Amino acid sequence: MRIVLVRLSALGDIVHTWPLALALRSARPDAHLSWVVEEHFRPLVDGHPAVDSVVTVDTRRWRRRPWSAPTRARIAMLRTRFHELDPDLALDPQGVVKSALVTWWTGAAQRIGLARPWRRERLAGLAYTATLPGSRDQRHVVASNLELVRAVGAAPPAELPRPDARWLLDRIADRPSPVAGQPPYVALLPGAGRADKLLPVEGLAAAARRAVAAGYAVLVVWGPGEDERASEVVALAGTGTALAPPTDLAGLVQVLAGARAVVGGDTGPVHLAASLGVPVLAAFTTTDWRRNGPLGPRVEIVSGARDGDDRPRRSARAERPGRVTPAQLADGIDRLLGER
Q: How many C-beta atoms surround the C-beta of residue 10 within 10 A?
């Protein structure tokens, strides 16, 4: 059996799809499993123990110039690749129009996504030959992703598995670490994928000062476009807090894996840190943490959002967003470091 798994982005969502890939591998050890992902996230799936091959796309560039000759050529190459793979089954846990379009391009006889309300965008369903409901018993998105394993005649695991990133450490074991020789440190993440998910810099600085008081150095980890905000956190936090070195995705894994704890909002690196087994303090302002919270052996949650009932929802957005205070973050890091 030849299976294509379509999860294009983003970082945290890819982490939350690893358990589905492992469940598919367990159910069909003889299958060839290909994962379709955005090019810049390829390191998060290339080499995964359940994945046999990786197909990359660049939908952001394609959307900028949809009718250009280079875009048409790349899409033609993608469809040729799918023709070579000749998949029997394509699964789309992402459930948005762009992922559904890629699912349709696979040409698989069976193209299956999540039903509403578990699927994010209604129009995505036009690309599927069938849909499956997400989890009715567990709210977390990992549980709903795992329902797609029913497409190969298997049942999801009884207990919700945590994403496991240890395979990434094996992939980068020979790479020099950007934090080699660093004293024990806590990593702070000032960025987020959306402005409404950003935590107040005063709160991050308060958490940094508490970590320093507990005997740790603090590294403020930043990505593209986040350096100014990261520098503001460093300036407010004072002694013991410094900017982390610039990193690519592999370097980010090394920085997070080496931390004694990681603090951030609803952002991909928080989920990655939890999957590495690092203690995590995750703060939520607009997101329902019960649906999209990090899964790991030691996770402390702070939420300013007020959540409703346990009915499945297509959106990760909490019903009533709310702010997280500096005191909540400072107290959260105290609990996290005190219970290590």
A: 16
pLDDT digits (tens, 9 = 90+) for 75-103: 999 999 999 999 999 999 999 999 999 99
Same domain, 183 and 157: no
Please write the tens of the pLDDT for every residue from 293-311.
999 999 999 998 766 555 5
The structure's pTM equals 0.95
- Quick count: other Cβ atoms within 10 Å of Cβ 180? 8
Decide: residue 238, CB within 10 A, 0-12 exposed, 13-18 middle, 19+ buried: exposed
Omega prior to 10 cis, within 30 of 0: yes
Rounded alpha-carbon distances, angstroms, from residue 38 to 34, 98, 100, 263? 13, 11, 14, 26
Residues 57 and 201 placed together within one structural domain of the fold: no
Residues 74 and 156 in one domain: yes
Residue 242, classed as helix, strand or coil, is: strand
The full DSSP string for 185-197 is EEEEE---SSGGG
Query: Can you tell me the mean pLDDT for 16-31?
Result: 98
